[in-house]
Amino acid sequence: MVASMKPCPKLCKWHIMDSRRLEEPMSQTAHFPCRTTAVQRSFALLSGIFTALLLGSCGGGDTAVKTSPLALAVKGVDACSAFGGTPTYNPQVRSPLAVLGFDLGSREVTHAQAGEFMAALAVDSRRVFVGTAGNSVADKPLYYAIVGKESQVSAPGLEDLSRAIRQLMDPETTLAQGQALAASLPAVLWLGGNVHGNEESGADASLRVLYELAAREDCAAQRIRDNSVVVVLPIQNPDGRAAGTRRNAFGFDLNRDWFARTQPETDGKLELMRQYPPQLFIDAHEMGSKNFFFPPTADPTYHEVPDVTQSWVNRLFSPAISAEFDRQKIPYFHGAPYDLYAIEYGDSVSTVGFHAAGMTFEKHSGSTITQRTREHYLAMWASLYAGASDKQRLLTEWHQSQVAARDQGSQGVLEPNGLYFDGKRLYQQVANLQVRHYFFPADPTRARELAQLVRRLQRMDVKVMQLSAPLTVPDFRPYGGAQGAVTLPAGSYWVPMNQARKHWIQAMLHEQPYSPLSVSYDVSAWSNPLLLNVAGGSSAAALSPEAKVAAPVPELAPQGAPSGALRIGLFEMPGSTSSSESAGSVRHLFERVWGVAYTPVTVADIVSGLPGIDVLLVPDGYVNGGLQALGNKGQKALAAWVEAGGRYVGYLGGTELAVGVGISTAVLKQSHTAAPGALIRVRMDPASPLAAGMTNPWVMYVNDAVMEPGLGKVVARFPAVGDPDYHTSGLAIGVDELANTAALVDEAVGSGRSVVFSFDPNFRGWTEGTQRLLWNVLYGPNPTVSVSVSVSSKERASALDIATRALKSLPDTGKAIRIVVSPADADLTRAMLQRYGAEFKESTKKERTVFVIANREGLSGEEHPFAADLARELAQQITPLSIYLP
After folding, report:
1. What is the pLDDT of residues 219-266, one digit of tens each?
2. What is the DSSP secondary-structure string of 390-441?
3. At what angle do helices 175-184 and 391-411 cross, to 10 degrees?
4. Greatest CA separation found in the chain?
5. What percent of the chain has pLDDT above 90?
6. What mean pLDDT do residues 354-381 have?
7. Which domains, ranges and CATH numbers included, belong to the chain?
């Protein structure tokens, strides 16, 4: 389907840009008709334009198409072009039809068929090398192929390439050596598809590219092979593809797992990427919105994104795609809702971690497989041809970018924030401070978490050192604390910033991410030390510590359950994706991280009285689906089990279920915050055994409900603003309303107890700091057993009535899409939601109006039929305080 387009204005405004970033205009401007002539473009060049960039809504042909800033680089006449002429094929290389019995794009390939076809190409053509990057959760191989010149993709050739490209990545390589390597090496260009299992076409398109590079003999294919090697990872999520689900077998969204590497699929491809680091990484997706998306991305952009990568996207790759899509009159768009902020995605991790042009492509999932495959193929081929045609500049600038990063680290310089696409006003600037070092004292109480942090850094080629002698740091800035002098003991870890991974180090170890806007496509905080609850901090001082390179940290073994551990049951509420995602992350935690036994629990088990279960864990999910599934009989049985001595543990939807069943008197109220994934430090009650080994951890807060304890005891609470323990990271607008409210409540219920969280202690498997808190809740001693709590039946009935009334007042929206605006923008927002036919609830508190949009199935922003379009249109008309798409 083709969305309606506004007519192109008669004149398009061209801004002359400097060579650094698209968004830094120089003083001159020129105006040309939308369809410029060669004379006009030459005139622009003679006027001093290095690259002219089109701003606004202008398209080629008779159909007006919204285009990005479009580079017009006039070069010499070239007889070859990406899509000109008729391709010629080597008949010795079998086609998809010959191998599979159908043409690529006529129907979706299976994982097995993809592997079969890739293996056939490796047999037929010496231009193709095929391997396995790892295995999925369900043990399916992650097939990859590398295609290029025969000499470069042989086993010895690939060893040489890996060694040489990593040498070019080393800032200690001299300028002359770098130039020589850039002249002799091919660019390394990556194609990734199907990271979401039900977004199939990226895989099929990348297989078509692979075949054409193996079989075609014409100049376009030859140029790509001569000047690049292309790494093709067609199916990043084989389990999801087989099941037809977005997520993998553990329910993880693999495009939110890139920095944490909790899943084997992510870990395998990142190890391959370390071996063949890219200058371009394409991640092909599908979405609910119409048309096709490719960068430039919307604001915000994370401040440590290397400048050169955005120059490549805006001046080289995006214009190449735009030109072909304009020629073929294919509608497309740029910008909202897709940003380049949170360092958790394939595009942002490849950009910040490897200095690549990380590019997400999105095609409407409702189109036919033929159209989806074709448009992804065109965007991929245009990008590869552009990169191969300019490979020496790419490689030269890639090396220079590593050198610049090291030099910034030596000076302690952090990149500033800016607005680069459609942002109207800068929300937050990067603090005026220097960071030359990060330090992490050895802490035996956090040894596992600290080891995890060091391992993550080392496996992204960050140089991590250990102090050989005590070191006095005069200006140590601890996380969540005041600056001061401190003497660090020998054995402390030291991460110097003067290395090629400077941008990555800052992205992973910062305390504040410094958001350029008050909106973010996903979470706004991801600092690894805070997620792990590891003590440490930074320094700007010029120091020369006595230190040695830290030994590589091996993979952490599961810790196993304590002796005499209670028997754990896991209940997944039916009816929504959020239920399966949350329960899946718990299964991963139990099986792969902790190595503990558990029993999946059904409604029938609950009705039968949960035989053999001591502790029941109910994670997030759609509470009404859970209550309906249990029915009156199941709800009564669950309450009776707790009163007889069972321990119920719930969070988010699981907390709501506890209130609905009558085993918790916690009072839940809708929040009015604009905090889409902020880290907030909570204060623990040190007297509670649930706080064992915990020191005021940081929790991931995602606009969750405000919780009061009812008759329960507060084990962890949110400090008030101004309290010495109050600290936040990320967008935390309005979190003052959480002041002194409960984050974790323990409540005696008859002979048993319920323990409920207002947040997710196992958020995406990232929050290993609060995983320990969940461990204490599941396996620790029962703090309420030894305490006589005298509550009359009348008092309890009254407390349950208050809690139940509050629960019923919460919006029945499931995993809601949440929009927060100023009250002045509420009328426009409301009218837009009504026009989209959205079911929503609206509430206002002081300076914020909150709209929660029903999403009971728990669809992601990409899966939802209109969420992305709504976010984009709204951002064009107002400046929302927050837009959260699940």
Report:
1. 999 999 999 999 999 999 999 999 999 999 999 999 999 999 999 999
2. THHHHHHHHHHHHHHHHHHHHHTPPPPP---SS--S---PPPS----EEEE-
3. 150
4. 90
5. 83
6. 98
7. 11-72 (no CATH), 96-371+378-408 (3.40.630.10), 437-549 (no CATH), 568-669+705-716+740-809 (3.40.50), 817-853+855-884 (3.30.70)
